[in-house]
Amino acid sequence: MNKNNVIILNDHPIFLEGLKRIINHDSEFIVTDCCKNSRELFFSLSLAPANIALIDCSRPRGDMNIRALVNQLSLNHPRMTIVAMGDCPQQQQLSDTLKPQIKSYFCKSLTPENLITGLRHIWASHCQSEQLLLDDSVDAGHFIKPRLSAKEKLVVEYLHAGLTVSQTALRLSRSVKTISSQKRSAMRKLALNRDSDIFRLKLNEL
């Protein structure tokens, strides 16, 4: 049975070791690496991809903030599912503002059983659909639609979530002109005629 790769970003050694043991104890998942900061995380992902990234909302001093980190991960690894972890309502609210890039939020006080249940739900809801998309693209041959770039896909996800072009530009630190151009390019590739068509998209099929 193939195991699903999980990478963890957390700078608390005891918590990290416990989380790793809980996940590795399950037959469906394996922790490929435990990283203390974003530099280690990006280096590890450059060597081996992961299906799921568990990211601690509490970042150490001097490291990338969670918003910048999630944006960069989404650009560099668009098919990896990002899950935030935290221990207070403020961190959950922060995680919610970073949807759709962050797919779920896990409270650090979860029981081991609920943690594994959550990972299985994430795998069934997001990771499997991404794998099926890759498999289908191989079978479809020349019938494949032009694929969106990572930046175009990210713009579409924000627009699908209800943000305007201006709000998306502000969130991604790009110009309105750039976002508008990426939006038009994405709509052309997806054969969309109206802005409202974006809301009918199934994001896991992009």
How many discrete structural domains?
A: 2
CATH topology of the largest domain: Rossmann fold
The named CATH superfamily of the largest domain: Response regulator
Strand content: 5-15%
Total beta strand runs = 5
**Rg computed from alpha carbons, rounded to a whole number of angstroms:** 18 Å
Task: Identify the notable features of this structure and list them briefly.
206 residues; alpha/beta; Rossmann fold; Arc Repressor Mutant, subunit A; 2 domains; five-stranded parallel beta sheet; globular
Structure description:
The protein starts with a strand and ends in a 17-residue tail after the last helix. Helix 6 (150-160) crosses helix 8 and helix 7 (165-172) crosses helix 8 (176-189). Helix 3 links the parallel strand 3 and strand 4. It has helices at residues 13-25, 38-47, 66-76, 89-97, 112-140, 150-160, 165-172, 176-189; strands at residues 4-9, 29-35, 52-56, 81-86, 102-107. A five-stranded parallel beta sheet has the order 2-1-3-4-5, sandwiched between helices. It is built from eight helices and five strands, in the order E-H-E-H-E-H-E-H-E-H-H-H-H. It has 206 residues and is α/β, with parallel strands linked by helices.
